């Protein structure tokens, strides 16, 4: 939905409709804001990068956190760290352990008595902890990383986590030092898991030079894959987080990062570029009589009366503009030329011959109940398809081309006639 196109139309007794104003605005404003923000992150990241919503700790309370998880997923994110959102809405739940989990361990002696059962009929040559210690020696020599400089507490934490989640092992590797400790300890446990029939998922980096560190870690993964004939190891996930915003993603792209997944929290759920959306609820007709709100600021002048909305598409499949008409006008037809006018600037007008016409409004509530069946997955697919039908220059981050919203000639004349009838006439002396 674009400026001047009504997002929703509500009809009913005046007092009832006015009571709904705050309800609808609180439901629509934040949801639309987060969905739009998440869609911008998806556009910046591209289709090949997975996006995870990590914003619950920074969201505007529990309800804001749940809403952010839901609407981020609707806009193209692939999962959330919010377990309750996963339970309520069926969103894939993804995440890692905390830095505190890593720093809570000191040595492998703390794991005395812990064991891991092999997967299926796999028969490893030793117990899991012993294999981890053996692999650390082998990998330290192969990767030319000093084993003495790596953290034993970090290795212990990774082993403990792998025993608890052998099929979902993703380690946070920046608690101490990514290149001197974290990546070695992760590969150590990942190789031991492989001996037990499991495959690690990947790593997360939450600080430092994300582009540079992702290249180093990916290089290590590729080296391990080649040295031990494990092609899948080269493609393990590298998740990056740490106050990532839209500009950060664009910068990472310019630096040729090797990240496969981004975890985004603060800038996603709080929408720091625009913390609030200013949707408004205005009366446009009562008892069959149009109503108009005037303002010295033309942007705040409302469109009076009932209206129908249409999206006109070109031969390339992209949307050309949105057109509003009065209800009694025949709708625009594909292949038939139609005059489209700027709502307020008389000289801005153009004939459009649409290749396809889409009606924008559909009844979703009436006669005391819902008239439409809408699912989260259906809405997610609709958002994706809608974005694909917008030209790239409308979606770019820097100086996007404004999307055109037009009115029919009849609606244009109606608006300006009503404007002149309601605008007070000044008197000078």
Note down, in words, how this protein is organized.
- There is one protein chain.
- The mean pLDDT is 94.
- Strand 9 and strand 10 form a beta hairpin.
- The chain has helices spanning 14-45, 61-74, 83-89, 99-103, 128-143, 152-164, 178-195, 210-227, 246-254, 266-269, 376-388, 392-395, 409-422; strands at residues 50-53, 79-80, 170-172, 202-205, 237-240, 261-264, 285-286, 289-290, 308-313, 319-325, 338-341, 349-352, 356-359, 365-366, 369-370, 404-407.
- A six-stranded parallel sheet has the order 2-1-6-5-4-3. The chain has a four-stranded mixed sheet with strand order 13-9-10-16. A two-stranded antiparallel ribbon has the order 7-8.
- It has 429 residues and is of the alpha/beta class.
- It contains 13 helices and 16 strands.
């Amino acid at each position: 939905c674009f400026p001047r196109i009504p997002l929703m139309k509500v009809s009913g007794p005046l007092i009832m409709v006015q009571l709904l104003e705050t309800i609808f605005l609180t439901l629509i404003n934040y949801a639309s804001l987060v969905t739009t923000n998440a869609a911008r992150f998806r556009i910046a990241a591209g289709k090949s990068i997975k996006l995870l919503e990590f914003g619950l700790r920074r969201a505007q309370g529990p309800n804001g956190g749940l809403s952010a998880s839901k609407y981020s997923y609707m806009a193209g994110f692939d999962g959330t760290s919010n377990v309750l959102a996963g339970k309520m809405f069926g969103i894939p739940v993804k995440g890692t352990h905390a830095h505190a989990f890593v720093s809570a361990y000191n040595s492998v002696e703390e794991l005395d008595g812990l064991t891991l059962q092999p997967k299926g009929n796999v028969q490893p040559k030793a117990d899991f902890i012993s294999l981890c210690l053996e692999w650390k020696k082998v990998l330290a020599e192969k990767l030319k990383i000093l084993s003495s400089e790596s953290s034993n507490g970090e290795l212990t934490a990774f082993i403990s986590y792998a025993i608890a989640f052998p099929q979902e092992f993703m380690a946070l590797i920046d608690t101490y030092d990514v290149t001197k400790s974290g990546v070695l300890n992760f590969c150590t446990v990942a190789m031991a898991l492989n001996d037990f029939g499991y495959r690690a998922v990947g790593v997360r980096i939450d600080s430092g030079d994300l582009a540079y560190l992702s290249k180093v870690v990916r290089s290590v993964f590729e080296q391990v894959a080649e040295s031990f004939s494990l092609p899948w190891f080269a493609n393990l996930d590298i998740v990056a987080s740490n106050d990532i915003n839209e500009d950060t993603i664009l910068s990472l792209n310019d630096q040729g990062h090797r990240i496969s997944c981004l975890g985004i929290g603060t800038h996603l759920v709080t929408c720091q570029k625009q913390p609030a959306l200013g949707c408004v609820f205005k009366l446009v007709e009562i008892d069959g009589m149009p109503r108009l709100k005037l303002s010295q600021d033309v942007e705040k002048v409302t469109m009076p009366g009932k209206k129908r909305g249409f999206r006109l598409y070109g031969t390339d499949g992209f949307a050309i503009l949105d057109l509003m008409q009065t209800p009694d006008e025949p709708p625009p037809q594909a292949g038939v030329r139609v005059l489209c006018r700027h709502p307020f600037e008389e000289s801005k007008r153009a004939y459009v011959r649409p290749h396809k016409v889409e009606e924008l409004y559909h009844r979703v509530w009436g006669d005391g109940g819902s008239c439409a069946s809408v699912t989260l997955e259906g809405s997610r697919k609709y958002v994706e398809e809608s974005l694909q039908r917008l030209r790239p220059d409308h979606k770019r981050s820097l100086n996007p081309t404004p999307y055109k919203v037009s009115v029919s000639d009849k609606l244009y004349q109606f608006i300006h006639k009503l404007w002149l009838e309601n605008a007070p006439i000044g008197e000078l002396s």
